[in-house]
Write the structure tokens for this entry.
Amino acid sequence: MAKTDKRDEIVRAALELIAEHGFHGAPMALIAEHAGVGAGTIYRYFENKDVLITELYRELEERSFPIIQKGYSPDKPIRERFLHLCTALLRYFIDNPLDFRFLEQFLNSPYGVAFRRDKLLEARGECDVFRELFEDGVSRQEMKDLPLVILFALAFGPILAVARDHILGFIMRDEVLIARTIEACWDGIRR
Amino acid sequence: MAKTDKRDEIVRAALELIAEHGFHGAPMALIAEHAGVGAGTIYRYFENKDVLITELYRELEERSFPIIQKGYSPDKPIRERFLHLCTALLRYFIDNPLDFRFLEQFLNSPYGVAFRRDKLLEARGECDVFRELFEDGVSRQEMKDLPLVILFALAFGPILAVARDHILGFIMRDEVLIARTIEACWDGIRR
Amino acid sequence: MAKTDKRDEIVRAALELIAEHGFHGAPMALIAEHAGVGAGTIYRYFENKDVLITELYRELEERSFPIIQKGYSPDKPIRERFLHLCTALLRYFIDNPLDFRFLEQFLNSPYGVAFRRDKLLEARGECDVFRELFEDGVSRQEMKDLPLVILFALAFGPILAVARDHILGFIMRDEVLIARTIEACWDGIRR
Amino acid sequence: MAKTDKRDEIVRAALELIAEHGFHGAPMALIAEHAGVGAGTIYRYFENKDVLITELYRELEERSFPIIQKGYSPDKPIRERFLHLCTALLRYFIDNPLDFRFLEQFLNSPYGVAFRRDKLLEARGECDVFRELFEDGVSRQEMKDLPLVILFALAFGPILAVARDHILGFIMRDEVLIARTIEACWDGIRR
DNA sequence: GATGAATGAGCGTTCATTCAT
DNA sequence: CATGAATGAACGCTCATTCAT
């Protein structure tokens, strides 16, 4: 097993366990076991549990951004850009429920708050493209003239909620429904 | 101290500690201390910690329903009813951050999932009035013809997100902003 | 078992294990076992291992001072006072090897250094009576005019060494030998 | 790097870390790092940590003996020989605090006891010259007629104590004080 | 021979729960 | 009824030692 393999196995096991059972339900010993490594091995790759979790989040971001932004062009009309990005986001969540559940756990934990604060203030990471889109939308008067955080809430709130409902089995994956949901989000945001 | 007082103190202390420090930051011994009772006493009123937390949620629901539904009449137009309920809900969250933060913790934990499942299937609790409203809205063709869960997501998703942003200090309380936010939610839902 | 009994058992077990096997050889679980209590119980009485050890030292001091100073009078001649105190000290160490070995471990650890520093500077605790004696001795020109730390070294150095030799079985307890040893210490210190 | 160099680097690093941070503060991995070798390499030269430490002690002895005995002649008068050796010993400790601190750690640990036992019984190592001196002193009736261990205690007890006080910063290096201290030791031992 | 990644037993500590008082 | 001292399983983490490369 190559060096990278072990690290990846640890990250994968952590994602799985945290997504399924929460931070509580993912003790280091269990993560190690699921990763097929010794308990101490995790600490060769991650200073402590917090670092492992934060790093896991970072990798998730890195992995998901390209997928979500694939085929996106900032030159198209606002509406089209919005539908493109949000549909991709929702699809990603539905198709990667582990990623989504971890993300939720993370963002609803002390870890996550600092991240969200940074993102809003420093405008970096994934939000960049969304922020740009929303700022464009507002300045071109195609979106409501509301603070960015509110627009984010109007767009992402429903998406996250729907993704959660999928994972819980309340809805089945359905491309038409996804499209209609995102269009409804657009209705909430557009002027 | 009357029997009921002790129980109430325990529930109050649990709410406070869980809201502020999460489930981790609220050991039974600390809850007991904050409640001014012995550690063992909690177990006279609640079988175990899970039951305490679940019960706490139930009481929160009970306490908040009347507040949210105050002045609500099912005879008014759909739009008005929607704005009324959702505004009340958002206001309640903003004005009772402890309740909201506990709720978030709860719904984002294994505890919460079973509850949400029950609610959707059995149609009881707070959702009744919302469910009625949304079913009315759909059947009168004033709301989009989407599954109930999607409509819920379009309404509550942004509200929860905005409430969170308030608590994190990203937005200040502002009646006009609240009103505009809820109207935006309506735009997302209405036909 | 009364509340105090448990605490005492823990202290006793800690003393025994640390004296015999050093700080390393006295894990909390083993101390608990030897004390006949659960592992967690220790933490009801002592915040952590450091506190347990420091407290153990404090109790040792408290217990030994009266024994060592029994029959001591600051009104007698310097020489007699010196012989009295030092003989009592050496006897105490020989008769309480556990106490002595713990003391050695303690004073040769990070814990101990702070204590010794305090004692030298603040002049409190057992050293008070020794310090007084030595200061008297110097000012009355019956002891050599050397810094206090040096006089302490000349008196306690051999005593500790002899006590250690007893415990290691290099010498057998022998009142005459004890007396002659302490007199030799006096020869080193007296003018 | 020659084979011997590696070994020496390991021993040096171990001395440094143990002297400064105790046995606890000197994990094998850190010793390896400070020595500039791989962690496993240590085990090519020393069977395990205990052996490394014991060996380190042995080398320390070997290194210090010639320094302490430099200029020493068994033909000079007892008193002069005593002052010579003991002054050299104290100076060595003061000037080589790392060596002294390791020595203390060592002698106050399970490792040390066996060594001291061996020394007294087998009469080898550094003690030879001291033992010879003391046996001479006793037989020539210039020293008190006390068991060897007691005479050792009277001589080395204060020296070790004073060395410790230097390292802890309680006394500053001072040739006159050193001389007077050693003379006081002599007073304790001489007839 | 030299390495350093991997190991897992063992550490100090926490906390939900019990039960004698 | 109420208590809070007692428990011990489980946690996150360290480190002496091994062994494939």
About this structure: The radius of gyration of chain A is 18 Å. Chain A has ten helices and no strands. Chains A and D do not touch (no CB pair under 8 Å). Chain A has two domains: 1-46, 63-189.
